[in-house]
Amino acid sequence: LIPPERRISVIGTGYLGATHAVCMAALGFETLGMDVDTEKVTALSAGRLPFYEPGLEALLREQLASGRLRFTTSYEEVAGFAEVHFSCVGTPQRADGPGAELAYVDAVVEGIGPHLRRPCLLVGKSTVPVGTAERLASRLAELAPVGRDAEVAWNPEFLREGFAVRDTLRPDRLVLGVASDRAERLLREVYAPLLDPRDGSEPVPLVVADLATAELVKVAANSFLATKISFINAMAEVCEVAGADVARLAEALSYDPRIGGRFLRSGVGFGGGCLPKDIRAFMARAEELGVGPAVRFLREVDEVNLRRRTAVADLARELVGGAFRGRRIAVLGAAFKPDSDDIRDSPALAVADRVQREGAEVTVYDPKATDNARKAFPALAFADSVGKAAYRADAVLHLTEWAEFRDIDPGELSGTVARQRIVDGRNALDAARWRAAGWTFRALGRP
Ligand code: UGA
């Protein structure tokens, strides 16, 4: 029999949970993934990922074959299986306001609590408003037959879509929010392969903190990243009226190691299931706590970000002669970023939708996100190649920087479109190459 300390359970098998479960199994733990969604459990058990993430499906299959990983829909089974339970459910934006929806996080505690009959640790990984872990800890102690010996810890996750496996197995840092020595010891054991690697690689930096600090680290990190992007996009707005070039400006800034070049790429702005909702939830929580003014600048961050979507549409409208009605527009990209099929709060689709509402005939192409995009935006047309999307287009909008789009031969595409006009909404295409092939090339924040 495998001792409980070599066993891990992972509750919630969405993006975060599926990745975590697979990676925990890869680190050698007997891992039980749990979800209330039978379809997800069936798919994962059969080695199918319900979303696209490079390298993860192959690793899932490998771990299933090893016998270390399996999935269930039963809280009772999870409770009996392991001593350490990771909770990886989502905390989306609430339907009725800017705050975080905590129904799923609460449901985990309600679901597993009554089954906890021996000392254990429930480790939250979700992004939550500060104070949530403390509240969950009290509720868990009320529900669990073992009482206060069912503890809560917080271990925020910083993985990026597209790099999920690498970010989980080799994170930049580990943050452990704990309320007891026992919780710290258990988590150090779980993460021993990263903290004390046997393969000669550098140990992952560790920060041990209280629950509230651990919760805050996550929203602070995402707020900083969002601010950095909006900073450079605000500079793009200034560049546009000053006739300056934001790409050169960003390059010059990047050589200052205090600033650094990462997350300084100007374009149509940030989207996805994390940055936008996290800054909004943070503002809402700060208001509740009476420190609203401390993070009010995030409102500007959000507004700068949303203005970029308007800016791309404005640029495109100008390019096609002042109005979209009757124009054919090709949109390259639907995912919120490349190497992902995630369309949550995608700037590309927000722009496509707006242009279509203004009367254009819009055709979208994305290498992976078409199915998701079609469901969310049934009024848009979708094509299965760049060429088909661009057929007889009056303008092409490049809005998600897939590698495939960088490799487009502008000369080849010239014969397909009605007019050779392109807007690079991601500052990722080679302007000189497109212009040399006869295209009118426009980009945000650049002359
Ligand atoms: C983000 C964070 O980067 C992760 O560290 C965090 O764990 C995650 O949220 C989360 O909270 O779960 P992710 O949403 O996968 O990860 O995507 P990012 O790579 O951060 O990109 C976010 C958005 O910013 C994308 O729309 C991207 O196109 C945009 N972006 C990024 C820019 O516009 N400019 C840049 O320079 C970088």
Report the mean per-residue pLDDT as an integer: 96
Count structural domains: 3
Q: Which runs of at least 5 residues are low in confidence (pLDDT < 50)?
A: none
Q: Outline, from the CA principal axes?
A: elongated
- In the CATH scheme, the class of the largest domain would be Alpha Beta
List the keywords.
single chain, alpha/beta, N-(1-d-carboxylethyl)-l-norvaline Dehydrogenase, domain 2, Rossmann fold, 3 domains, 6-stranded parallel sheet, 14 strands, binds uridine-5'-diphosphate-glucuronic acid
Description:
- With about 450 residues, the chain is of the alpha/beta class.
- It folds into 3 domains: about 5-210, 3-Layer(aba) Sandwich (Rossmann fold), CATH 3.40.50; about 220-300, N-(1-d-carboxylethyl)-l-norvaline Dehydrogenase, domain 2 (Orthogonal Bundle), CATH 1.10.1040.10; about 305-445, Rossmann fold (3-Layer(aba) Sandwich).
- Helices cover about 45% and strands about 15% of the residues.
- It has 19 helices and 14 strands.
- The protein has helices spanning about 15-25, 40-45, 55-65, 75-80, 105-110, 130-145, 165-170, 180-190, 190-195, 210-240, 245-255, 275-290, 295-320, 345-355, 370-375, 385-390, 405, 410-415, 430-435, and strands at about 5-10, 30-35, 70, 85, 120-125, 150-155, 175, 205-210, 330, 360-365, 380, 395-400, 420-425, 440-445.
- A 6-stranded parallel beta sheet has the order 3-2-1-4-5-6, sandwiched between helices.
- Helix 15 links the parallel strand 10 (about 360-365) and strand 11.
- The mean pLDDT is about 95.
- It binds uridine-5'-diphosphate-glucuronic acid.
- Its EC number is 1.1.1.22.
- It comes from Streptomyces vulcanius.
- Pathway: Nucleotide-sugar biosynthesis; UDP-alpha-D-glucuronate biosynthesis; UDP-alpha-D-glucuronate from UDP-alpha-D-glucose: step 1/1.
